[in-house]
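Hey, I'm writing a tutorial for new members on how sequence and structure tokens pair up, and I'd like a real worked example in the thread rather than a made-up one. If someone can provide the structure for the chain below, I'll link this post from the tutorial.
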Amino acid sequence: MANLSGMAEPTSSDPPLIVERSDGVVSAVMNRPEKKNAANGPMWNAMLELFQEVTRNPNDRVLVLTGAGGAFCSGADITDTTGVVGDNSNHPLFRMRFLADVVLALHRIPKPTIAKVRGIAAGAGMSLALGCDLVVCADGARFSEIFALRGLAVDGGSSWLLPRLVGLQRAKELAFFADIISADQAFNLGLVNRVLPDCELDSFVEEWSKRLAKGPPLALSLTKTLLNNSFAVSMDQALEDEARAQSVNLSSSDTAEALRAFVERREPRFEGR
């Protein structure tokens, strides 16, 4: 929930989340640049609605999550009276469960998700980035599990994500000290997939998202589920799960199309069936 922003909130009618769609790629831009995109109540609500919509909409094949104004997200806005911290109409436990609903909705999207990170990704903002399947950042990006500096424990799924990404000891170091780490440090720790010059970030993410959008939706969804579940199952169960997933693929129109395309020496056209 914590954030790094101490700026005053501007008066604005701009939407907290800007959403654009093109050829199966959904771009979601967190849009409070004056507060480094600290997430307030309207933004959390907008993200929950969007994540659930992307899950249901067969025309949405890839989600790219990013921030406006040179920052990704500085965390939850702890000064916001409508947010998960500021709303006193419910007990903190219930307010935090709403944040959990947003994080789970992102995690449960059965399609590839990409975090495109510029500037700061801190607290719940870092959790949102790590909650995506792929993280691509500019070389000036910074990350921090800032919670301890605000007197808070980690949230936004970081207690689950960090040990899986960097190991338990490294996770404790990031959480206990709450240091701000550079893009290169994040890459070396295994927190991000690519670090790019800022001027190349947009084109690289666009290329990746277009490639994924043209990929086989069913196969990618099943692969994502297998990988997400891998830490919770035995090798025996993983092989059984793979067999079930592959049997679904082998009975699909997309696999038949892929085989035809291979024989005809052309690119396959996947429809998710």
